Amino acid sequence: RSFIYLIDCQDPERYGESLDYFDKVMEYFKEQRQNIPIMVLLHKFDPEIKENRELNKRALVLKQNLLKYKEFQIYFFETSIYDIKSIMDAFSTGLSFLFENVEMLYSYFEDISKRYNILFISLIDSTGITVGEYYSALRLIDKLKIYNLYLEVLKKVKMENKEKYEFSDILSNGKRFSGVIEVLNLSNFDFYLLIIIEEEKENLEKTISALDAIEAEKDKMEVIISQILT
Question: Which residues form the signal peptide (predicted)?
């Protein structure tokens, strides 16, 4: 379980009211001995004002005020309806608290990423919530680009009723990457496994071999992931 608390970061006049109500909620949790993760969404942190100095200063003050409850695990997220990924990341974190073995999923993704030199791997449910992911040395701008590509490709996967879809694009550093979406059926629910591999310009056969090896391991991955999540 987790508790989500939303604050409108563009309405500073109501910060005091938000903090007072948060205090009451925390006191209730302490009385009930409910030590659950707290997710604070600083909402309306829109892309066009995200770098605004005054907004960031106010957000920092809010965080400092809320962190006085050291006995609770408090997580902060800057969200906006104009940045769907920010909302999905927040709710994905909340969902992860429901899965006792989410750390095992992370470890498994880390293991296969090292074996196949994967840049990014993510398991996403049919509603768009990320159940687990692993990535290394991937810039935020590239992660957002990959997620937007995923949304575009997913439409084709559903429209064409495909079990697998491959695509390719360019990272912010100019290097190309290959991506694949694999449809996994876990407990009669569809999940989407997104895998990104950096292409080897001088040795494309190596990239193709890696994708083929991942495809060959699909059934095994499906079984392992299912065991972890159930």
Answer: none
Question: Which strands make up the sheet holding 38-43, listed edge to edge?
Answer: 3-8, 38-43, 74-78
Q: Which amino acid is at 65?
A: N
**Are residue 118 and residue 223 in the same domain, yes or no?**
yes
- Same domain? 75 vs 149: no
* Closest listed residue to residue 16, CA positions, set 58, 70, 74: 58
Domain residues for 88?
A: 3-96
Residue 99's identity, in one-letter code, is F
| Residues 105-160 pLDDT 10s | 888 888 988 888 889 998 888 877 787 888 877 787 888 888 888 888 888 888 88
β-bridge pairing 38-43 and 164-170: unpaired
Query: Are the C-beta atoms of residues 40 and 74 closer than 8 Å to each other?
Result: yes
Q: What is the pTM of this model?
A: 0.65
116 and 211 co-located in one domain: yes
Task: Give φ, ψ of 113 to 5 degrees.
Answer: -65, -40
